[in-house]
Amino acid sequence: MNIIKNVIKFNMTQSKKLTGRELYDAIGRPKTIVAPMVDHSELAWRILSRRYGAALCYTPMFNAKLFATQEKYRDSMWTKGLDGNEKLDRPLVVQFCANDPDYLLTAARFIEDQCDAVDINLGCPQGIARKGRYGAFLMDDWELIHKLIRNLHDNLKIPVTAKIRIYDDYEKSLEYAKMVLDAGAQFITIHGRTREMKGQKTGLANWKILKYLRDNLPKDQVFFANGNILYPSDLKRCEEQIECDAVMSAER
């Protein structure tokens, strides 16, 4: 009887959904992260990136509604047995863009057994995101963002994370980040650029505001910094200046 009780207790422990710091420890405390990039972050790129030092990779952004409702789209974006393969492609975070909590949850359930966490894209500043009402253009609707995150947090077997951009205002950026965390995000990745900083107006990411956010969010909060990583030396410089847990790098 004691053996049965111990087995049940072990299984319950194993199935417990990890929280932020627990998840970060479980995936090896990665310091170097390859960002989700459309048309870049597919499996081959992730394998290559890990070979050259990436400790954590994200998929490209998937459209949650299409992923949930169109098998052809889903199969074109995700190959069962390869994407998320425990020997080839982990640790892995799968990123979705969405503006509907139900479609997002349906999409995430297709892959929740094949990745370590699901991330919500709240940072895409491109015109297609404006047209589709997702990414950084949800920054005008905090209530919807909260619902998207909370729905995954309450109903998925794995943790939910979020990648956001900043506002020009330090305090508004802080309140925004706190809201995202309150909704249930276990990691927060903050890109130190505003929604308007894109294309020819990209400019430099603001590490000062990232440092401010790091200092004013809970100390045990897993915090990834993103922006201005042009050279290998920038990784250490960013980590030291911001005191973040890890640095995420994309194109710049």
Automatic annotation (TrEMBL):
It holds the Pfam family Dus. It catalyses: 5,6-dihydrouridine(17) in tRNA + NADP(+) = uridine(17) in tRNA + NADPH + H(+); 5,6-dihydrouridine(17) in tRNA + NAD(+) = uridine(17) in tRNA + NADH + H(+); 5,6-dihydrouridine(16) in tRNA + NAD(+) = uridine(16) in tRNA + NADH + H(+); 5,6-dihydrouridine(16) in tRNA + NADP(+) = uridine(16) in tRNA + NADPH + H(+). It is an enzyme of class 1 (oxidoreductase). Transmembrane segments: none annotated. It comes from the Eukaryota. The keyword Flavoprotein applies. InterPro entries: Aldolase_TIM, DUS-like_FMN-bd, tRNA_hU_synthase_CS. GO terms for molecular function: flavin adenine dinucleotide binding; tRNA-dihydrouridine16 synthase activity; tRNA-dihydrouridine17 synthase activity. Its cofactor is FMN. Keywords: Flavoprotein, FMN, mRNA processing, NAD, NADP, Oxidoreductase, tRNA processing. Residues 34-251 form the DUS-like FMN-binding domain. GO terms for biological process: mRNA processing. Its EC number is 1.3.1.88. Belongs to the Dus family. Dus1 subfamily. This is tRNA-dihydrouridine(16/17) synthase [NAD(P)(+)].
